[in-house]
Amino acid sequence: MDKLMAHTPQRSSRARRTLVCLVVLLFLVPVGPAAARPSAAAPAQQEGASPLNSSSQPAWGLRPVDLALQATQAPSPAPTVALTSTAVPSATMPALVDTSGLLFEQDFGSLQRSEALGFKVANTGTADYVWSPYAATITVTAASRYADSLIEGTYSDFGALVDLQPVGPGYSEYGLMFRWSSNADGSDAEGYQLSVTTDGTYRLYKALNGKWIDPPLIPSTSSPFIKQGNARNIVAVLAEGSNLSIYFNGVLVNTVSDSSVSSGSVGIFAATQDKPPAAVAFYRIDVYSSDRASADWGVVPANAPATPAASAGGASPIVNAAGVLLQDDFSSLAASQANGWKFGTGNGYSAAWSPGAQTITVSNTRYSVDSWVSGTYDNFGLETDAGPVTNQYAEYGMLFRATTGANGVSSGYLFGVSSDGRYWLGKLINGQWVNPSPIPVTASPAIRQGAAQNVLRVLADGPQITLFINGMVVNSLVDNSLASGQVAAYTAAQANPPATVAFHEWRVLTSGAATVEWLVPAVPTAPAVQATPTP
To answer: Which of 60, 330, 353, 527 is most open to solvent, judged by the fewest CB atoms within 10 Å of its CB?
Structure first.
């Protein structure tokens, strides 16, 4: 195990600390407190039942039942170790995504906020609505049913996306309700339902006057851009007037025209057919203005069966396949290992893989632990979605343009964030941390503090290095010390270990693709506030 003593950047007479670093990535739900599961009615949620049928209409009706949780039957588908150790500098303790055009955001990080925005924890006997940190899980336990949850607000022209993953043992359906409205008994329900299945097909249904319209707007259609089985997908809809465009994992797969319903609510749903249960975890729901969504997502359709776009993840709502150099969503252990990640335990640390996630726990306060992803990069954009899974102090971030030697990391940049709302950029040259740091420890209102996820990005284009937190440019500088190297994830504990951090999806883009995706249109700049060093 390679070791390198660390120093503390930009600190006054404070004793030097070291920390533990480890390279990883996460994509699923952070580990956290026991899931909340009280029995309660949820007026904005629906569920119901009706027999399967063989027609192209949905197999579920529109009449709500059970505890005021409206539930309707779902549309029927066509049957169809080792890690190395290196010390890194201590930071001393060192909203959100770009808010322009963002109309609604729900990441399920807080039970109180989740319920205030429309998701209600409840058990109706046939559907279970469960909250856990950064995930809302809907489980449908009866055959031929669906259960949904509508968010706050009414929308006409917009882009809506949901980041989700089936977590049940068998077949599931899931997707988005939009421009949706219904009275108490469902007799006047109207709107659209985009249904996706675990076998890689999708349909777009329409309801009017309490009835599903036959045939559907889009019949059962296979798409190579849907990740099948219990894989994570990002499902999105762009509604502009009568034009309804469907996206899977960043790829525009279909557009239809229908002017029957012009506005309504947006919601999520899970459904089962003849082999319940169906369980789906929802990690994020965003609603954007139609202008913002069309600019970010693009309006050029995919030419199937092209190579599917980079897989979905919390780090970025919509991903264009062009310009993606590396992406790992941890849905496959073998694929993650092939990308270079190492999983295991050591003296004071562990890196555990689970489907869609890697969780790093560090209890050693002296040295860092590094696990490197494959590849060497010069000009690029690097992105991850990461955060502590408890309220205990933690540091996390990414190493880039880094190289290793016999004694561990010999050079590189470190973009670090702390759970108390600070960030910094450190630089290591020939095994020594440069003091002062390129960017000293700095407080930023763009950082979500405590046990919250933050989207971290670095755009390295020649000597220009730009740092982003949750879609906002927090700092930029010119430094030509290091031109290329590897990238890695970083987790650290200080005086009160352990620190447990979840990393969601790891992406490396070309600098051109990152510039277009992150800076066009330009994102707002967060004010930087210089932190006062701890004595």
So the answer is: 527
